[in-house]
Amino acid sequence: MKILVIGATGTIGSAVADSLAARHEVVRAARRGPVSVDMADAETIDALLAAVGEVDAVVCCAASGGLTPLNTLSDNDFWTGLDGKLIGQVNLVRRAIAHVRDSGSVTLTSGRFAEPVPGSSLGYLVDAGLEAFVHAAATEMPRGIRLNTVSPGWVRETLLGLGMDPAAGTPVADVAQVYVDAVEGTAHGRTLDVGAA
Fold it and tell me: For residue 147, which of 92, 194, 83, 86 has the smallest C-alpha distance?
């Protein structure tokens, strides 16, 4: 398969791209680099898809967000969070449909916290919106194209990079395998929780 991985320079995206590249042709895209895209800019999404051409799958691991308490969240922070991760991924799906071959797939990234923590309200809004969108939009996908989102919690390597206790994190290789399963499997219209039984 020919697979476009967006966010391929991040912790999760690079692991996903490496795992898929063992068996497939992978085009790696990121905000910076030779194949670039900004998920908050629909024109760059269009340009990327036009340059890459037809693909069998699109995987988006881009557009993460930080924790920002509600009372300090500026209007700019709020709309930037919505534009990049939520609206950007919705725009990606809308535009990718014309570039994904019959029976292909689009896999997005939502997220998960074990429980609400200070600063997580925008993340909850974005993730719940993405998951609801995937559930509903799956019924509208043409030509057998499958649509899913992966919901990773804390990633062990990210926690290590932040100087935090990695015990609560899932190894990035295990996270990447969930994306691989979404691309190579049959799931459709689902939120695939990392670490869920």
Answer: 92
Domain spans of the chain?
2-193
CA 175: distance to chain centroid?
A: 12
**Calpha distance 112→133 (Å, rounded):** 16
Above pLDDT 70, what percent of the chain? 95
* Token digits of residue 154: 């804390």
DSSP class of residue 119 equals: T
The predicted model gives 119-138 an average pLDDT of 92
**Whole-angstrom Cα distance, residue 168 to residue 162?**
13
Judge whether 144 and 103 are in contact, CB under 8 Å.
Answer: yes
Amino acid letter, 61 = C
* Per-residue pLDDT at 28: 98
**DSSP conformational letter for 113:** -
Q: What is the CATH topology of the domain spanning 2-193?
A: Rossmann fold (3.40.50)
